[in-house]
């Protein structure tokens, strides 16, 4: 049996490794358009940007590992077409390869901002090692960075840039930070943290365009007339799934390739994993598209088990993390169908957790510098255990005894 994996990122690299771990003896070809072996993206906005992680430290596995494990890794190679009827993929080189099972792991790409002036020099995005290198090359004391978007990537870069001495202004369309992923307490906490580190914010504003000087961006023009001065602009306004190949192959898609709980698409010979998928989330009775490493790993396990016919992995609860300055944010679950919010601890102390409940059951926990609360919240989320909100907010009761 021959397996082709399209996309040599976190999810694709994981599937390749797990297939071998599960004892799969057939051919595995892992095809990626980037020039690198699979690597981790989270450090690109954190440790790597600050110079704390060296180049090879990003790799999921050393480059030689693929040869040693009989995995044909083709980098700098793009798949341009899938032909499901003949079970063939066509590469940018013109070569055709045939498969028995195909795994799509093409990830997502940064959403672009197309406005007057966005063709000037000095626009940056952050998805790849090359993007991170371009960004880092700008950082020096006094350098003025405008960041459009107050989500995870924008805020992590803001923190790294401040530590390296840049002036940072973040422009956010909503009236608070992290609006897509977190609740208002979290937003206020991180706003304060960033302001204490000298980041300036503009909230509830629309970007109308960009001004330039000698072809180089020099300012962001906001609706209302304000010009935010800058030497470069980082656009961090979310990612869109790379589901074009899947749509062209007539797989069912809905903002991502639709998969089941075994990472199967609507074609029985094609699986899909990672940021490019829309997956069922039985815990919340809906389907979601997640962009996170834990999701890439979980779906990697699902696909490898389904292909090898080994035991189904246990369903997991979704979780996320972010590091900004010396604060660690961990979120388990998602804020759906919440009717009650319970605070445990005081944000002013820098250590707290916000529990979101539906009735007496936890739907999500946002923990800041509070790993025990995160761990317990995750367990309760999985067990669907009922919790007494009064005991939960009482910090004199250790979290394990709540
Ligand atoms: C700056 C940054 C910080 C992040 N921080 C965190 C974090 O703290 N925690 C967390 O959980 N997650 C974080 N993430 C998200 C996490 O990195 C992604 O969820 C994860 O990389 C998803 O893996 P993936 O394999 O689905 O996609 P990707 O890692 O994007 O890999 C997809 C690969 O497929 C390739 N590809 C696409 N189309 C083709 C084609 N036609 N032919 C060949 N190759 C193709 C792409 O070039 C890419 O290399 C961060 C992401 C970024 C960008």
Automatic annotation (TrEMBL):
Keywords: FAD, Flavoprotein, Oxidoreductase. Residues 319-401 form the Reductase C-terminal domain. The keyword GTP-binding does not apply. GO terms for cellular component: cytoplasm. The keyword Flavoprotein applies. Its cofactor is FAD. GO terms for molecular function: oxidoreductase activity, acting on NAD(P)H. InterPro entries: FAD-oxidoreductase/Apoptosis, FAD/NAD-bd_sf, FAD/NAD-binding_dom, FAD/NAD-linked_Rdtase_dimer_sf, Reductase_C. It comes from the Bacteria. Residues 1-300 form the FAD/NAD(P)-binding domain. This is Ferredoxin reductase. The lineage of its organism: Bacteria, Pseudomonadati, Pseudomonadota, Alphaproteobacteria, Caulobacterales.
